[in-house]
Amino acid sequence: STSGFEMSGGELVGPGTVVVNGAAVWTGGNLGGEHPARTVFNGDLTLSGNGSRQVRGRAVEFHGTTTWTNVGGERSFEVGTGATLLNTGHFRDQTIGNAVIGGSSLSCCFTNRGVYSKSGGSTNTTIIEIPFETEGTLQIFSGTLVLSADSRISKIVDVYSGATLQFNGGTHQLNDIRSGMGGAGSLGGRWIFGSD
User: Fold this and answer.
1) Measured distance CA(164)–CA(162) in Å, rounded
2) Which residues have a Cβ under 8 Å from the Cβ of 172 and sit 6 or more positions away?
3) Could you read off the pLDDT of 177-192 as tens digits, one per residue?
4) Are residues 85 and 111 in contact, defined by beta-carbon separation less than 8 angstroms?
5) What angle do CA 33, 79, 147 make, to 5 degrees?
6) CA 137 to chain centre
7) Contact 50, 73 (CB under 8 A)
8) What is the mean pLDDT of the chain?
């Protein structure tokens, strides 16, 4: 374990677990490895700048406040085969312009068990191209959040006035939703409505 972490390039590889208990900054570079490799951010994490980040074959966990920002232009977060993202804290998507959490394999996924919030401006779009599951709170304060792969949405979804939650392609399952839909919804793909 370590009390701090800063990464601007290169690649962290290996089969072990890296636990960061203090503040961390990740502006670029790759986290690689093979299962059961893990990187655990227990403290606050800053994802800043326009650099691309890649996660391959590694589980990455966000347990504090994670703030994702940029300075304009397209921004990407690539998740490769066998990699997973888990948020139990507050993942604050404050990107401007277009941002993508992408990947080419359905074996990767993003699971939210805390709060995922999107803000940053009314014309901004974030596209999540990998399977997305939320069992916590999903908040869209401004802009558009697009789920373009399979999704499973449970618990609380709040889309504020002027914001949009858009479903494209994939299969989307909604379970026991408590929703405040002051904004807009755009539906596509295959839908399943049920309960856990």
Assistant:
1) 7
2) 147, 150, 151, 152, 153, 189, 190, 191, 192
3) 776 656 666 656 565 5
4) yes
5) 155
6) 13
7) yes
8) 87
> What average pLDDT does this structure show over 38-66?
93
Q: Which residue has the higher pLDDT, 50 or 159?
A: 159
Q: What is the rounded CA–CA span in Å between residue 142 and residue 120?
A: 7
- 170, 151 Cβ separation under 8 angstroms: yes
For the record, the structure tokens of 159 come out as 């889309």
Q: Cβ atoms within 10 A of the Cβ of 123, count?
A: 11
**pTM, two decimal places:** 0.90
Separation in Å, CA 72 to CA 8, 50, 91: 18, 8, 19
Residue 128 in tokens: 């999540």
3-state class of 116 per DSSP?
strand
Question: How is residue 103 annotated by DSSP?
Answer: -
47 torsion bin: left (phi>0), alpha (psi -120 to 50), beta (else): beta
CB of 95 within 8 A of CB of 68?
Answer: yes
